[in-house]
Design goal:
Blueprint (H helix, E strand, L loop, with lengths): L4 E2 L2 H7 L1 H9 L6 E3 L6 E3 L5 E7 L4 E7 L6 E4 L2 H9 L14 E2 L7 E11 L2 E10 L15 H8 L2 E2 L14 E5 L2 E7 L8 E11 L2 H10 L1 E6 L11 H13 L4 E6 L4
Parallel strand pairs: 1-4, 4-6, 9-14
Antiparallel strand pairs: 2-3, 4-5, 7-8, 8-9, 10-15, 11-12, 12-13, 14-15
Length: about 260
């Protein structure tokens, strides 16, 4: 039976017209599936379904997702990251647990630590990520010792946070990639209007809690807060994370932006 599949041009180019046509005809596509984004069941015979192709150096994995959760696309990831995602697509983690760091967007040896948590704004829980470097971030090409992390982000469209109770505004071209039920990357616009590139990428796909994922799939938006080194720390509980965010905001050391869930 034909499937209600969305196959993007990028996915078709990777898998070929013949395989894409077989999928659309229902030959190689499952009827029911676990959505690669929200992890709940979907049915490609009854609802629009996206084909999502994860591509590593040697491995490619075709997955399926509700079209309302994530668009059909090709997601390029490191080979070990793809293998890790295949091996580990379930699990639990503290709601405000620090994730593995990744290279920072500057010319020194700092790395970005990312913490996931839920932030209460206007009596509604919002999924949030908090980004904090492990060392001061210098402006690329600069020989100075100053910390330019916040100015660099504000030049990209992040805005200062004066009150954590106010929802941050959107930022153009950025997104948060949640796939296979796990956090993969924060994407920023590519140069010259090209495809988005990873500003931060998990060394291995990272678990988020069911509550965080449910809130993200409800709003399709993730609030991303960023602060200079030493401003937030690795807080073990969400109430402590909230206190640290409020303190950083009061000291003028917090910027934020609202980003759509998943990248295109």
């Amino acid at each position: 039976m034909p499937r209600m599949l969305d196959v993007s041009e990028d996915v078709r180019a990777e898998i070929g017209d013949e395989e894409a046509d077989r999928l659309l005809a229902g030959e190689n596509a499952p009827g029911s599936y676990d959505c690669t984004s929200c992890r709940t069941q979907g049915d490609s015979e009854q609802e629009r379904t996206s084909t999502v192709l994860f591509v590593g150096e040697e491995t490619a994995v075709l997955a399926f997702a509700h079209a309302t959760c994530i668009p059909s696309q090709v997601v390029k990831v490191a080979e070990e990251q793809l293998q890790g995602a295949v091996r580990s697509i379930t699990g639990t983690e503290a709601q405000a647990a620090p994730t593995a760091p990744a290279p920072a967007p500057a010319g020194d040896q700092a790395v970005l630590g990312v913490t996931s948590g839920l932030v209460l704004i206007d009596n509604e829980l919002h999924p949030a990520l908090v980004v904090e470097p492990t060392a001061p971030i210098a402006r690329p090409g600069s020989a100075g010792d100053g910390d330019e992390f916040l100015p660099l982000l504000m030049e990209q469209g992040f805005l200062p946070v004066g009150d954590v109770n106010q929802r941050p505004g959107p930022i153009a071209g950025w997104s948060v990639l949640l796939a296979m039920g796990q956090l993969h990357a924060i994407l920023q616009p590519g140069t010259g209007g090209g495809s988005p590139v990873a500003w931060w990428q998990a060394h291995q796909p990272l678990q988020v809690t069911e509550g965080w994922r449910a809130a993200a799939n409800k709003s399709h938006t993730v609030l991303v807060f960023a602060a200079p080194v030493g401003s937030i720390g690795q807080q073990p509980r969400e109430d402590l994370l909230r206190e640290a965010l409020e303190k950083a905001a009061a000291n003028g050391r917090l910027v934020a932006a609202a980003m759509p869930l998943a990248g295109t």
